[in-house]
Every structure is written in structure tokens, then in C-alpha cells.
């Protein structure tokens, strides 16, 4: 818990604990999961830095070496394990009608098989976002 900063759904509710990615046999790929979010802060004069704690992959639970890379974006920016800065101007605090809440920032998650059918199995993965307030 960071008392200064939070990422919530655009309607102010918590992010889901888990999601299910939909696989399409017709395209041999996963559908992009999308969620409208907003950054809540107690200091709208500071930007935000976001990164992933680890490179995201889906792993076959019966064959952990069978993995599918995932791509995560926030507000149109691809996230990875290095810092991605969101400036105050990009976040547009207050445009949502609440002073310390950013404009809607779309969060997307996509497991990319690159058009090749993955090995059959039950896949799972964890995505952890690290978000800090710019100093």
C-alpha cells in the first residue's frame, strides 16, 4: 500500500485479482485484454514512474518451460522492467472531474503466440506493476 498513489479501475474500484485471456484457434493467438484505469494521487504536481517487476510470460503449468511472452501497456506505453515515466501533462489530473485522479489510462495485456499455435495446456502467469511517484 502506498498512501500517496494508487492504480484503480476508471470507476474507482480495485483492479481484478485475476483475469482470463481468451485464445482464438482461428487466429492462433490470444485476444487483447483491456481495462480502463485511472491513477489516484495525493500530489497531482508530480508525475508517475511505472515498471514491471519481471518480464511477463504465460507458462504451461504441466510444462513450465513452455512459455508465451506477454505484452503490457498502460496509457499506450509498453511497460517492461525499466522505468516508464508518465508526466503530469500526460496524466491530465482533474479531467475526470476529480482533482487528484488522472484521465483514463487504458491497461492492456496480450499474450502473443506470433501466429503459431501454442502447445496444448493450462497456462498461467503473473503481472506485477511497480508504480512510484516522481520526486
UniProtKB/TrEMBL annotation:
Classification via InterPro entries: Fimbrial_CS1-type (IPR007540)
Family annotation (Gene3D superfamilies): CFA/I fimbrial subunit E, pilin domain
Cited Pfam families: Fimbrial_CS1
Gene Ontology CC annotation, any one: pilus
Name assigned to this protein: CsbA protein
Amino acid at each position: 500500500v502506498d498512501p500517496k498513489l494508487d492504480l484503480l479501475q476508471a470507476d474507482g474500484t480495485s483492479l481484478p485479482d485475476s483475469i482470463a485471456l481468451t485464445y482464438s484457434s482461428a487466429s492462433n493467438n490470444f485476444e487483447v485484454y483491456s481495462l480502463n484505469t485511472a491513477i489516484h494521487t495525493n500530489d497531482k504536481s508530480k508525475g508517475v514512474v511505472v515498471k514491471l517487476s519481471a518480464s511477463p510470460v504465460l507458462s504451461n503449468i504441466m510444462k513450465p518451460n513452455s512459455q508465451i511472452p506477454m505484452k503490457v501497456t498502460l496509457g499506450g506505453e509498453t511497460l517492461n522492467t525499466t522505468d516508464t515515466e508518465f508526466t503530469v501533462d500526460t496524466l491530465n489530473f482533474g479531467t475526470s472531474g476529480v482533482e487528484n485522479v488522472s484521465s483514463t489510462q487504458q491497461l492492456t495485456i496480450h499474450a502473443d503466440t506470433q501466429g503459431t499455435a501454442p502447445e496444448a495446456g493450462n497456462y498461467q502467469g503473473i503481472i506485477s506493476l511497480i508504480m512510484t511517484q516522481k520526486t
